[in-house]
Design goal:
Elements (H helix, E strand, L loop, with lengths): L8 H4 L3 H15 L6 H8 L3 H13 L3 E3 L15 E3 L4 E8 L3 E8 L4 E8 L7 H21 L3 E9 L2 E2 L4 E5 L4 E5 H5 L15 E5 H12 L7 E6 L3 E7 L2 E3 L30 H4 L1 H7 L9 H13 L3 H25 L3 E6 L5 H15 L9 E4 L6 H16 L1 H7 L2
Parallel strand pairs: 3-6, 6-10, 11-14, 14-15
Antiparallel strand pairs: 1-2, 3-4, 4-5, 7-8, 8-9, 11-12, 12-13
The protein binds zinc ion.
Length: 412
């Protein structure tokens, strides 16, 4: 089954035309300024005639459009470059988390065209009930996309748990889900029925992995190898190595929340003891800050913690310092193992990064062998809490960009 960020291999087996379509579209997508047909021919080594034919296909398939002409100085016609279409195929990104559902639509150029979040504690609901609410959000997103002239070309759903290759959620401990057949429960729902290029209309993936992909494409520094930590009620991480998501042998990498810090520590929802999550999960931080039982939704809880920290509330500052130290110990272990130079604090950690970052850096400086001459950057995520849904939608779009022939064939 095709995974969200691994479509490029398919191109190798394709025809020359498929290859040319992907090369030309890739150049247009990566260009800083809209390239001309002549420029594309020079860049790719393809003939002008081939580029023109390929561009014609891409324009007919609503993948590419002519940019507004830019006036040329001197004689001659104004130059018309090519840009990704703003009204072509788009990706639908969905997220189920412990206390919210989200849906977003991302266009070919990676712009978020629609984003909606529904806040509710989903733990009392059955998986089927939670997914029914998600379908409502997806239906609304599809209508919004259609209003903007966009066609949804597929969907990816982010879930805070272990997902197998068939989309079965084996375990989402903080949601209380076990062996939930998500694709079967969502089958037949209108926004999710189209299948493009043999890829199932809905890919289910771990939310921390999708959030890391979102950060990979939205991040400011183009870091190619980094750890993206999603700090929510549970803690997950996405590992990006050399520009690709490292999913592990079965797609279950990144369970940083269950790295044991103290073998005899507090009981964790996973069944173990003393996991990182029991010290730095959102509920642990709230409890340490004296806010346990405040029953705040995740975003409010994070905002509240940030406000109190801003105001210098000692208990909150202490709680964040301890959480950051515990996080730093685990992160230092990961950095030692994988030789990463960047750590991104995402999800609920992003707004708390000002307070978490110093103790994380302290632990890194004490524990990472190479830290003295090769510093590790620790920074807040660019996308914040919406990273997983945006990353999910973006994964659909990148699949099309990597293999446009699939989309063109699908359209007939
Ligand atoms: Zn655990």
């Amino acid at each position: 089954m095709s995974r969200p960020d691994a479509p490029a291999g398919a191109v190798r087996q394709g025809s020359l035309r498929e290859w040319n379509l992907a090369v030309v579209l890739g150049r247009i997508a990566a260009a800083d300024h809209p390239p001309s047909r002549a420029g594309l021919a020079a860049e790719t080594g393809l003939t002008r005639a081939t580029v023109s034919a390929v561009v014609e296909d891409l324009v007919a398939g609503r993948l590419v459009t002519e940019a507004e002409p830019t006036p040329r100085t001197g004689a001659g016609r104004p130059a018309r470059g090519l840009v990704l279409a703003a009204d072509g195929p788009a990706g639908l990104g969905l997220e189920v988390n412990v206390d919210y559902l989200a849906a977003c639509v991302v266009d070919l150029a990676g712009r978020v065209r629609h984003h909606t979040v529904h806040r509710a504690d989903l733990r009392p609901l059955t998986p089927a009930e939670a997914l029914r609410r998600l379908v409502e959000l997806a239906t609304r997103a599809r209508a919004e996309a259609a209003r903007e002239g966009l066609t949804l070309a597929g969907a990816a759903l982010a879930v805070p748990g272990l997902v197998d290759d068939a989309g079965l959620v084996r375990l989402a401990p903080n949601l209380g889900w076990r062996d939930v057949p998500v694709p079967a429960l969502l089958a037949g729902h209108p926004p999710l029925t189209a299948s493009v290029d043999g890829v199932p209309p809905l890919v289910v993936e771990n939310e921390a992995n999708l959030a890391a992909l979102g950060e990979l494409h939205a991040g400011p520094d183009g870091a190619a190898s980094f750890l993206h930590i999603s700090g929510e009620v549970g803690i997950g991480a996405g590992i990006v190595l050399d520009g690709s998501l490292f999913r592990g042998a079965r797609g279950w990498s990144g369970e940083i929340g269950h790295i044991p810090l103290h073998p005899d520590g507090p009981a964790c929802r996973c069944g173990g003891r003393g996991c990182l999550e029991t010290y730095t999960g959102q509920e642990a931080i709230l409890a340490a800050a004296g806010l346990a039982g405040a029953d705040l939704p995740a975003d409010t809880a994070t905002t509240r913690l940030a406000e109190l920290a801003e105001g210098g509330e000692p208990a909150v500052l202490r709680a964040l310092h301890h959480a950051g130290s515990a996080l730093g110990v685990a992160v230092a272990g990961v950095v030692n193992l994988l030789d990463l130079d960047t750590v991104v604090l995402g999800g609920g950690y992003a707004p708390l990064a000002a307070w978490l970052r110093p103790p994380v850096l302290t632990e890194i400086s004490h524990r990472v062998l190479t830290a003295a001459w090769s510093p590790v950057t620790v920074r807040p995520a660019v996308l914040g809490a919406e990273a997983a849904a945006v990353g999910a939608a973006g994964s659909v779009v990148r699949r099309i960009l990597a293999r446009p022939a699939g989309w063109l064939t699908h359209r007939g």
